[in-house]
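Work Package 4 report. The design task specified in the project plan requires that, given a folded chain encoded as structure tokens, an amino acid be chosen for each position. We show below one input record used in the internal validation round.
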């Protein structure tokens, strides 16, 4: 695989991680960037690149994911994030059913997903139904 393809793969994985907030894709994303840099200096054959990618992805995930989850308080005991359930936010952009976008709440911008069956309009007030990592699932606020 050419070096630029590794870099592109790493950037796509990191972008998906930012969008989804699962703290899984960051490790193969960083590993792909590292392999891209190694491939740029021609550090080995294709099978070595794939082996290093696998070892780096799985090794760093096993070593660092749990401490990062604890430090960021994502998953398990979500603490203060559970307090967001029932809160009201204002959409920054229209959201189709199941779509992901941005909403303003508590003075900052949040990633939100439309959990309802109806499209939501920009500027519409929505209610937080559930929190998944840093993604808020929202429905139309009927109050």
């Amino acid at each position: 695989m050419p070096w630029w393809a590794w870099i592109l793969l790493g950037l796509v994985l990191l972008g998906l991680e930012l969008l989804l907030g699962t703290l899984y894709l960051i490790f193969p994303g960083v590993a792909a960037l590292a392999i891209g840099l190694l491939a740029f200096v021609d550090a080995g054959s294709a099978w070595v690149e794939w082996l290093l990618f696998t070892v780096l992805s799985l090794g760093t995930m096993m070593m660092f994911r749990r401490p990062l989850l604890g430090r960021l308080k994502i998953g398990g005991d979500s603490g203060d994030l559970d307090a967001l359930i029932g809160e009201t936010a204002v959409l920054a952009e229209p959201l189709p059913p199941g779509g992901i976008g941005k909403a303003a709440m508590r003075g900052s911008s949040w990633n939100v997903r439309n959990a309802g069956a109806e499209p939501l309009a920009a500027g519409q007030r929505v209610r937080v139904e559930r929190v998944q990592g840093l993604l808020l699932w929202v429905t139309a606020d009927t109050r």
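Strands lie at 88-91, 100-105, 108-114, 125-132, 135-140. Validation will be extended to a larger panel in the next phase.
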